[in-house]
Amino acid sequence: MISTESMQFLSAINSSLPLLATTGETADSSLVVAAVLLSLVVVYFASKLGGELSNRFGLPPVLGELVGGVVVGISVLHLLVFPETGADSSGSLIISFLKTTAGLNPDAAESVFVAQSEVISVLAELGVIILLFEIGLESNLKDLMAVGIQATIVAIVGVTVPFAAGTAGLMILFGIRAVPAIFAGAALTATSIGITSKVLSELGRLNSKEGQIILGAAVIDDVLGIIVLAVVASLAKDGAVDVSKVVYLIISASGFLLGAIALGNIFNKTFVAIVDKLKTRGELVIPAFIFAFVMAYIAAVIQLEAILGAFAAGLVLEETDKRKELQKQIVPIADMLVPIFFVTVGAKTDLSVLNPAVPTNREGLVMACFLILVAILGKLVTGFSVFGQPQINRLAIGVGMIPRGEVGLVFLGIGSSINILSKPLEAAIIMMVIITTFLAPPLLRFVFPEPTLVSGNSNELLLDASSGTSLAINSSNSESLEANPNSQEAN
């Protein structure tokens, strides 16, 4: 016999989880699992194919994952569609395939479609949490502090100028409401350190003065951008801008991040001691995820975004002796979950709103052009904020800050998940991310000329491809350098 208390408990579960209750009543749960599995096949195929093609053309793989999501999503193939895009079960080819091959009842198709979409969306959210945790692990605070005031100024300018210009322009020129405009402005603040560092490394400029300023500024820019994202996303949940709440969120976000970093000095030794005592599988990665998820939960509880907590957890564990080993163990987990986030963002983006043949779409196209212009100019000015460096390549610094890449997609994904962006504005943001990410690599190659050999009467000037520094070799004493390679001149 089932007691009255047990019945009440089961009733409470059903009332709190209506999705699962509906699915259980109208469709076989195995069909929901089948739909999710087919969705993951589509996601991984699109991410891998898109990433490989993008890599072949010298572009970041994440851009290919985004484009792959667009292809399989609501814009093209309708393989991976979601209810929030206005689609239903009849518009999903996966559900149609299940109807044909698995005998899915048309009456149960809608509930299976909704359940499948919810599961994929949850996996995508988990993917972005893992992504920010991984970014935190790769960010070295000591190296950032060593870069100096120049990188900090570049980062601050790179956040405030595009944010202010984008927000004000959307509100004044296009009549966008305050919260969506602020969110779009926040998306303009992002800088992809992964894309920039890869190109600088290929050009042999990673260790140049310009390269160090760009990298330092990009990481600081990410920290500031995540704080801005946490503030804006929290504001968006209420649908209004409250100045007192803005101040509270800025203080709480900054305090949370700084407090987490300060905690790292105490927690690091405890974490390593605990890990060393564990002997079963996952002795390192499981405690790390426990810490990351607890930090993400705390951030959510104090009205910040969970991703800020995950990022802070990564910064804390970056200081431990287990950092490199932990990074290696997280890579395959991130490889499984992070692509779901990027492909889902692309799949939910309806690029049909940018079709110029439809009169109502023309505003979205103009909006996209505006965001792209602000995104480029707002970062170019950062190079000219560098002072006290008369010989530095300011244009190269500005260009290095242009690509939004995966960081811009994080902003877009959060905005899509809380449904505050209109379809034209969402498509305009994703076009901005795509264009800036495509433009940055060739522009960096243009502003950083190839190493050249300059011949003169007494010396030849060579550029060291590995460090980006110049080496002056005097032709009159080149033989002595060869004879004594350990001399001070040779060094």
TrEMBL record:
InterPro entries, A to Z: Cation/H_exchanger_TM, Na+/solute_symporter_sf
Q: What is its main location?
A: membrane
Q: Name one GO biological process term.
A: proton transmembrane transport
Please state every residue range assigned to the domain named Cation/H+ exchanger transmembrane.
47-446
Keywords, comma-separated and alphabetical: Antiport, Ion transport, Membrane, Sodium, Sodium transport, Transmembrane, Transmembrane helix, Transport
A Gene Ontology cellular component where this protein is annotated is: membrane
Q: How does it sit in the membrane?
A: Multi-pass membrane protein
Give the stretches traversing the membrane. Answer: 29-47, 59-82, 119-137, 149-176, 182-201, 213-235, 247-267, 288-317, 365-388, 395-421, 427-448
> Where does the record say this protein resides?
Membrane
Question: GO molecular function: any one?
Answer: antiporter activity
Family, per entry: Belongs to the monovalent cation:proton antiporter 2 (CPA2) transporter (TC 2.A.37) family.
- Protein name from the UniProt record: Sodium:proton antiporter
Q: Which organism is it from?
A: Fischerella muscicola CCMEE 5323
